[in-house]
Amino acid sequence: MIKKINYQKLFIICFCAGLIFSTQSSSLDREVIDWDESTFAVISKSIINGKILYVDSWDTKPPVLFYWMALFIKILGSNIFAVRFSGDVLIFLTSFFLYKIIDKRYENHYLNILGCTFFILLFNFNFAQPTLTELPGLFFLTLSIFIHKYNSKNTFANGFIIGLAIMSRTNLGFLIFAYLIIYLKDKFKFEKIFYFLTGSSVPFLLFGAYFFYKNAFINFLSGVFIEITYSSSTNKIEDFYNDVLVYKLKNFEFREAILIFIILITFYVIYQKNILLNLSDETIILLFLLLSIFLGRSLFYHYFIQTYTILTILFIEVIYVINIKRITFLMIVFLFLLQFNLVFSGFQNIYNYQDISKNYPIKKIA
Asked: 304: closest CA among 316, 315, 294?
């Protein structure tokens, strides 16, 4: 029997895809936003050319993003569109599973749309436009929450996804401790916890076996787990002050100010209404995420992209608890209007992409 198409859910998915692609395309006229993205693109292109990661090309980042980006460069060509589109797809996939999480909890189409709109708005920050390692990390984090909500007993699958998250962003290893606390809190059997830990080790073992076959296992370990501890910043507070506070005060936009205000109001309502008690698992994950960020080798604002899914879930819970008539619909309209200029700019850039790409200082990825 053919399952009937749910056009409301299909509309939400198409709406999210269109909003992501258009707003993210608003930055296509800037070839370089973050030099990390440029480095990732060059390394990914070298993989296509047969070079070995951590041997012929080097960066102290886990391997997932390099292979993901290489796939899109292989299909779409050696250009900035392929690099950015690889990030757009990750944002879309993340928003899809976030939508499923919200839909399961509230079964409210307006809250689903609001959640996706708010989540996409978070990527309107300039630092969230390029394709960085935070994007696959955020996707796997969201997928793990989805698995935990829909099938909490399948701890092996959840562990495997967390393992992939660690192979995207090393600091996400803290999620193992977060889930151990969640499982102990929910009185999971030791057998289930063992499955989770086993699953989380599988991605590392698979990548390790591959690099061992390529005679690059020590390089892999050094680049991902060892070298990163020695290439740390000397002063994280100074990094944060210069990179976040000083830069943002000089380059603040109205949209960003509104978004920060909404986040602050969200946390105020959370405190007043004791909402964290309703979302204990998400709160534990958020605390360990923040701990992993603040204990890292440096402190830059794009690290906080990893908190976007949890921030969205908390925001939707606040809207649900407030329960003011029509506030959900009004918030959807308001948040969409905040992004409308980026939607317009995005479609303009897509239409004029050939002319824009001709004006790039570097025409192709090396």
From this structure: 294
Question: For the segment 187-205, what is each residue's pLDDT rounded down to a tens digit?
Answer: 899 999 999 999 999 999 9
Residue 146 and residue 101 in contact, taking contact as beta carbons nearer than 8 Å:
yes
**251 pLDDT band (50/70/90 cuts)?**
low
HSE-up of 125 (CA within 13 Å, CB side)? Answer: 22
Other Cβ atoms less than 10 A from the Cβ of 135: the count is 28
d(CA 293, CA 300): 9
Rounded Cα gap, residues 78 and 61, in angstroms = 21
pTM of the model: 0.91
User: Can you give the three-state secondary structure of 233-245, one letter per residue?
Assistant: CCCHHHHHHHHHH
Quote the CA–CA distance of 363 and 42 in Å, as a whole number: 13
Q: For position 198, what pLDDT does the model report?
A: 96
pLDDT in tens, 6-51: 788 889 899 999 999 999 999 988 887 788 898 999 999 999 999 9
Intra-chain end-to-end CA distance of the chain, in Å? 51
Question: Is residue 275 within 8 Å of 269, Cβ to Cβ?
Answer: yes
Cβ-Cβ contacts under 8 Å for 332 (sequence gap 6 or more): 110, 113, 114, 117
- Both tokens of 13, joined, read 């998915």
Return the pLDDT at 252: 57
Residues 6+ apart with CB under 8 A from 205: none
Q: For 95-115, how does the pLDDT look when each residue is reduced to its tens digit (9 = 90+)?
A: 999 999 999 999 898 999 999
Burial of 324 (0-12, 13-18, 19+ CB in 10 A): exposed
Residue 168 and residue 62 in contact, taking contact as beta carbons nearer than 8 Å: yes
Whole-number Å distance between alpha carbons of 173 and 166: 5
* CA-derived radius of gyration, the chain: 21
